[in-house]
Amino acid sequence: MYPRSERRTIMPRWIPLAFIAGFFAVLCFHQPMAGLLHAYAIVPFAPYGMTAVPPLGIPQWLSASFWGGIWGIVMLWIFTRFHVTTGLWWKSVLFGGIALTLVALFIVFPLKGRGLNLAGFPIGFLVNGAWGMGIWVFARCFGLWRVSPRST
């Protein structure tokens, strides 16, 4: 992604851009997908929720966007570390759809006392897969992935 010498810096320049890409992917892709599913009465929750999230009491949409930014850093680091250079759009969708949904189902929901509900996997895959597509779009816009004939 960037020259080897830059990898030794404390915070390479791609980290804040990856966070911003993940943050905006929630706002522009993840939440609209949740809105679509809500409009068709597939999910009971509306997008851009304003309910306060403990412990800081920030709105749900801001919490989701923050975690989207963190996951953006993780995803771009993994893709860079393992030299993922082709099929980035569908690998981004799969990463979001599978990795984020599994973490939500097996870690986040049980910690919040919601239990394990594997029936939520398809919905999680759609919403988080949309986030993955958003990461791909914003990462391309920010120049985090070089455009090559095989990268689309």
TrEMBL record:
The chain crosses the membrane at residues 58-80, 92-111, 123-145. It comes from Chromohalobacter japonicus. The lineage of its organism: Bacteria, Pseudomonadati, Pseudomonadota, Gammaproteobacteria, Oceanospirillales. This is Uncharacterized protein. Keywords: Membrane, Transmembrane, Transmembrane helix.
